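User: For a benchmark we're assembling, each entry needs the component sequences followed by a predicted structure for the full assembly. Here are entry 17's components. Please fill in the structure.
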Amino acid sequence: MAEGKIKYYSKMLETKEISCSELTESFLTAIENANSDLNAYVKVTPETAMETAKAVDEKIARGEKLAPLEGIPMTLKDNISTKEIETTCCSKILGGYKPIYNATVWETLSASNAVLLGKTNMDEFAMGSSSETSCFGGASNPHNIDHVAGGSSGGVASAVGGNIAVYGLGSDTGGSIRQPASFCGIVGLKPTYGAVSRFGLIAYASSFDQIGPITTTVEDVAIVFDAISEYDKMDSTSQGRKGEPTVNSLKNDIKGMRIGIPREYLDGIKDEVRLAVENACEVYRSLGAEIVYFDLPALKYALPVYYILACAEASSNLGRYDGIRYGYRTESYKDVNEMICKTRSEGFGAEVKRRILLGTYVLSAGYYDAYYKKAQNLRGSIVNAFKNAFQNCDVILAPTVPMTAFEKGNAISDPIETYLTDICTVPVNIAGLPGVSVPCGFDGKGLPIGMQLIGNTFCESRILNAAWQFENAVGSEVFKSSKYGVKI
Amino acid sequence: MVTHEDVLAIARLSKLYISDEELDEMTKAMDDIIKFADTINNAAEEGVEFDNINNLSNAFREDEIVPSYDREEILKNANDIDEGHFLVRKRV
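Assistant: Structure for entry 17:
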């Protein structure tokens, strides 16, 4: 499955085998049929989609050449701002909110006639690992709808895995692109912090958040990443992609590439997942890469460091929801303070409240040094540990998640247990590194297993090269289409 | 040990009401999470000073004066407005 869907559909459009309107209609029909099972979309935008499709068809009729993503039906996670289209972060508190501007990523894609099918489900404010904290209910796994699609970008992963979108953009603060991609058997890239503009992404934890693509193949993930990784003056942390487009180096030989595996990543993971990752090592050896095991003890504190810092940033970022300027407002109140408190208490779900409280706790006088400051210093240690690791290897290979998709309802019963599922994904966000999750097998129940390739900062080309080579070598062994969606 | 009083004090700072029904569960959850967070205080190392990610400095640029969003546009999402302002009515 090394040939991507984007080029496939793009060629069909250019050779007039199908019109963009027909292609878009088949996706809209597939959404209608599959969404009651998958709950991937929280808002479908047929008018916008058909209008764009018509413009693409006119362009084709005029004999004009199409841009790589032109006319390709896609979706956006519901925390990416879309002008005049409701953007709720799947929270009651943003009910009815229609942004007055586009996120830069959407501005870029819509300028090249990307066909927006709709907005997809997510954990409320991207806080969760199963999409079940969404005020619209959780998204289902297209491989087995009794299991979760993962989170927080569960809706995008469910839609792409279920063939009701060709690709989608999600956001990854602690694993929210890679974990659902892993659960749904598809590819998800969390770019280097600063590679993709965050302007218009509704903030959860600003020093961790990063937008990235979710697709079915590595080639597709590279095409979308190349399209959205431009410097943006609207984001003060934006740097854009460094170097050539990543699609140029996908097929490079990886003979002699040093692939490092930190032993800490293999602690406490399920046997089936460990086995799949070990098999991947064999594949890499057969391609001429060298596997090196090493220790990365700083990872031990990654999870508490992540939760302390992300919640601290969230408690500040979510201070803006006061019921005055946008979104939900409580019905009855005595004064401004009561209005704000009641609005927030009624508008936020339990997980969001927990994280705001934790963030406020670790930032409060008396606890700041013991938690927030200490966590920041350990963040520094983790950054340095990765920096040293990349002296001795080109990329790092690790499981994406210690397990496969859990059954619905299990994630929300125990917060700490759920936080532990993020153990393999958070270090990348702590250090601002790029990481891509690619499918590497199935468990005994037929649920997909994912592995991630982690690179040094701005080394997306290298990890995508390693990912493409793996995908090309194993082909259909790790790829199983779900029963849902468009079959063109 | 996180107490009911701690949770209520933090909730006040966070502008959240915690109902009597929610209080026990939230206190237990907070206590579990803080205990988990406490593991960083077992770290032998002090860590290194961290001020920003990837050694990034802010991407400074020249300040250009460009038109901002239209006032009417900005007010469109508000629950209550009056003469070009956000409005919070006094209610009893």
